[in-house]
Design brief:
Largest sheet of chain A: 6 strands, mixed
Radius of gyration of chain B: 23 Å
Low-confidence stretches of chain A: 255-262
CATH class of the largest domain in chain A: Alpha Beta
Strand content of chain B: under 5%
Number of helices of chain A: 11
Largest sheet of chain B: none
Oligomer: heterodimer
Helix content of chain A: 40-55%
Distance between the termini of chain A: 40 Å
Strand order of the largest sheet of chain A: 6-7-8-3-9-10
CATH superfamily of the largest domain in chain A: P-loop containing nucleotide triphosphate hydrolases
Radius of gyration of chain A: 19 Å
Order of helices and strands of chain A: EEEHEEHEHHHHEHEHEEHHH
Mean pLDDT of chain A: 89
Structural class of chain A: alpha/beta
Helix content of chain B: 55-70%
Largest interface: A-B, 64 and 52 residues
CATH topology of the largest domain in chain A: Rossmann fold
Strand content of chain A: 15-25%
Number of domains of chain A: 2
Number of strands of chain B: 0
Number of strands of chain A: 10
CATH architecture of the largest domain in chain A: 3-Layer(aba) Sandwich
Shape of chain A: globular
Structural class of chain B: mainly alpha
Mean pLDDT of chain B: 87
Chain lengths: 262, 344
């Protein structure tokens, strides 16, 4: 039985009277690509924020790699290898693509004041290595020629690729992608999908995707978790879920408007 | 001749100290994106604390009151002044940096500045109230006894050396991974946090380092002039520093030099020496502020990045074979990466 890397146990979170997440539990197995789907307002993005540590749940636990991280701030979770991307591309606009990647690596000598001032030789050497590494990553994503361009000048699709390559540079163990295919052309959707599968098989990164494009989900995700009204509704492969009446009512079959209205 | 020499020395010292202020602000705003709207309060903190550490105990019969009066040697007192300024930066950071950003942070700094101004001015037991401190012990007095200009020129060298050290420090910080993280925070703080870096810590560092550097400038100011009263650090002075940074170019210390030369020396200091019009005593100062204001407007209009924009980072690298070199991005009709296609 594969080891589960992430467990969400009985999470509840309310904003005023709105129960964004209402007793939701699921788990993610290590080394898999899992999709998190559900109608608008199901609490998917809120769940991503709870897992990554932007929001703290009112109740329940988030367990990453056997460790309860519910009370840890987001940057400490990231240090453990639990990373996320955002629904809108959030590149460092006034820095070059290469710099965008260099920033995110943890544990550089020149990041402390003492190191920055008095160990210049060491961080210069480190930076040279990181530049080589970053260039390799950028080359895989087809961004190599754009490495010295300001990230803010890139097109929407290129920014998506920068986001993904930047996340790879940070060496994640689990990567939460919040709608990575939003606003992206079909050709690039396919490329992004291929990149995700490659990263999963070659580097062993576990992925959790919040995604509305079911074609993509069917193609690259081995398991799907369905959320509706802040609860975990079902999980399994997409084929299994297509025959699940509850899921069809909530999401697949277009019964969503009734639930939103109720 | 000796009058001109003295004048030139004063202009040079002004240039050096303003340059230090602008570099301090540049680390806060240009690097880490912290809107500090009370730069001049840190200058005053450095100056006042230098003064009360270096001056002898207050003589109550003279009706001049100030705290401490420890009569320390000037290098130690200088350190104390700088640390005091850094401590103020730390305090403001503790209150404001954790929860606030951009405009809201700016409001807190502005409010703190006003608070300190009122407190120091109205309470004459602290730093002698509105009349301020004077006869503050100056360094190098034992060696510079022959001529007043001798002190001035020794001080030009002294402040120039300090400026060079600050400049080298700021440039190394900029290029280092620490500076890179600060700039990333300026771009998007949440993303930096989500990549495992404690952005609060980095912002606090920038805040305190910037305050310490502005404090150095403050100590140099009072060492050179020997006196300071609240009239010398009104809120308006903060915006002279800001104008210098915006005109010169933020996040580029070359811009800091040019900005402080243009704004702080040419427009701010040199115009002080234009003869007063007797019927309108405020004409010249008002004119000066108008000129500096229009300079800022013009530079934001025509060159929003400043005269020297932030330099693009470049790295020594071994070139790779571009995997997508052929036929990218225009090879497929609906190329995934052509700007037109992905903007939709």
């Amino acid at each position: 039985m594969p080891k589960s890397i992430l467990e969400v146990k009985g999470v509840k979170l309310a904003f005023g009277g709105v129960h964004a997440i209402d007793d939701c539990s699921f788990h993610i197995e290590e080394g898999t690509i899992t999709a998190l789907i559900g109608p608008n307002g199901a609490g998917k993005s809120t769940m991503v924020n709870v897992i990554s540590g932007t929001y703290r749940p009112d109740e329940g636990h988030v367990i990453f790699d056997g460790k309860d991280v519910t009370r840890l701030p987001n940057y400490v979770r990231a240090q453990h290898g639990l990373l996320r991307t955002f629904q809108i591309s959030r590149e460092f606009a006034n820095m070059t693509v290469l710099e965008n990647l260099l920033v995110v690596r943890q544990g550089q000598t020149g990041e402390s004041l003492f190191g920055a001032l008095f160990r210049a030789k060491r961080w210069h050497a480190q930076t040279r290595e990181l530049v080589a590494e970053a260039n390799e990553i950028l080359n895989t994503f087809g961004l190599y020629r754009l490495r010295n361009e300001y990230a803010g000048n890139l097109s929407g699709g290129q920014k998506r690729l920068v986001e993904l390559s930047r996340a790879v540079m940070a060496k994640p163990r689990l990567l939460l992608l919040d709608e990575p295919m939003a606003g992206v052309t079909p050709a690039l959707i396919e490329r992004l999908g291929n990149h995700i599968v490659e990263l999963n098989t070659e580097l062993g990164i576990t992925f959790v995707l919040v995604e509305h494009n079911l074609e993509v989900v069917e193609k690259i995700c081995s398991r799907v978790v369905v959320m509706a009204l802040g609860k975990q509704l079902a999980d399994g492969t997409l084929a299994e879920l297509r025959s699940n009446q509850e899921v069809i009512d909530a999401y697949l079959g277009g019964g969503a408007h009734e639930r939103v209205g109720s | 001749m000796s009058l001109i020499l003295g004048y030139v020395a004063t202009l040079l010292v002004t240039f050096f100290t303003y340059n230090i202020f602008v570099i301090g602000l540049n680390i806060q705003f240009g690097y880490a994106g912290i809107l500090n709207f009370t730069v001049i309060t840190f200058m005053a903190f450095g100056a006042y604390f230098y003064a009360v550490f270096v001056m002898p105990h207050a003589d109550n019969s003279s009706q001049i009151f100030y705290i401490l009066g420890l009569h320390w040697p000037w290098p130690l007192a200088m350190l104390a002044g700088i640390v005091a300024s850094g401590a103020l930066g730390y305090l403001i950071g503790l209150i404001a940096l954790k929860r606030l950003r951009s405009d809201y942070l700016a409001i807190v700094t502005l409010a703190t500045g006003t608070l300190v101004y009122g407190l120091f001015g109205n309470n004459n037991k602290l730093f002698d109230g509105w009349s301020g401190l004077f006869n503050v012990n100056q360094p190098f007095q034992s060696v510079a006894t022959n001529h007043p200009n001798q002190f001035s020129w020794i001080f030009v060298v002294f402040s120039g050396l300090i400026m060079v050290v600050v400049w080298l420090f700021a440039n190394r910080l900029y290029a280092s991974p620490l500076g890179r993280s600060m700039r990333a925070i300026r771009e998007d703080q949440d993303v930096v946090d989500s990549f495992g870096k404690n952005s609060f810590k980095f912002r606090m560092m920038a805040m305190v380092i910037g305050s310490l550097i502005v404090g150095i400038g403050g100590v140099l100011t009072i060492q050179y002039i020997g006196a300071l009263s609240p009239a010398g650090w009104t809120t308006g002075e903060t915006f002279v520093v800001w104008a210098a940074l915006l005109v010169g170019g933020r996040a580029n210390n070359l811009g800091a030099i040019l900005g402080s030369l243009l704004v702080a020396v040419v427009f701010n200091e040199a115009t002080r020496y234009i003869p007063q019009v007797p019927s309108h005593p405020n004409l010249i100062p008002n004119l000066r502020n108008m000129i500096i204001g229009s300079l800022v407007i013009l530079s934001i209009w025509f060159r929003p990045q400043g005269v020297f924009p932030e330099r693009k980072a470049s790295f020594l690298e071994v070139p790779l074979v571009d995997k997508y070199a052929q036929g990218f991005p225009g090879d497929e009709p609906d190329s995934a990466l052509s700007p037109a296609a992905s903007e939709a």
